[in-house]
Amino acid sequence: MLRMMSWGVLVGLVVVLLLANNAHGHPKAKPCDASPFRKDGRACGGAEAVSLELYAESLCPGCRAFTTGQLYGTWLLLGDIMNVTLVPYGNAQEKHDGDKWVFTCQHGPNECLGNLLQACLIHYLPNNADHVPIIYCMEAAENPVSAASQCAALLAPTLNWQQVETCANGTLGNQLMHSNAQLTDALNPPHKYVPWIVFNGAHTEEIQNKAMEALLPMVCSAYKVRTLYIPESKRYKTRVGNYWVPLYFSRPSLPQRLHQSLTPLKIPGPPLLQTDDQSDGCFSHYGHSI
To answer: What's an example GO BP annotation here (predicted)?
Structure first.
């Protein structure tokens, strides 16, 4: 059973994770120019980003466990090669009533509100880098709905929260949730439970089980790069084999350091942050593993 955190401890955890992320080279993806490599030296045309769609609901224990225990840690490490689509709706039902849709959620009205808040957050903050940390923060809190405004204030201080609440309680939120209902109902195969994971456009029981247990190596194995050129300005002073090792891949193991940072706070790190085994070889095509 996932142990939810108090607000004070949660703030500390989020700050630690984001500081580690920002300090150790998790750059935002940049547009590709005409050459096969971006100007920062990262591969541009060598591989498509790994796609992950998560169909979930805000108060589902299993959804919260996956978001906090697998998805967020993997995204922190590999977000530059991932496209994450979050679809808050899950096992809800809708019916048309006049000029609006009425939703019934599996875990009650509060879950419907949580779904609406998340849908509106994604609408106003469409980039993964902006909304994924807030939704992680919500799902890791004891009460995701109550924590929503505090998570947004911490992680997106320029966001107008009143606008988000207006969206959730108004026509826009109603339309966004109906769109999520349509996306969920259109799944092939049809979803039978949540969390429901679509990985690179496909869902099978094998994919679901692998993602639930060890998402990080799954993303690593799915992402293939033909080659990578490191410009002179980005080269580290040490060679590894026949490769120049860039600074942002020469760092010590990020999973281990994040786990060590969480231990003094008495917070159990997500499973993938408690071992280096899963990350071995993830960046082997660069000549060095993180």
So the answer is: immune system process
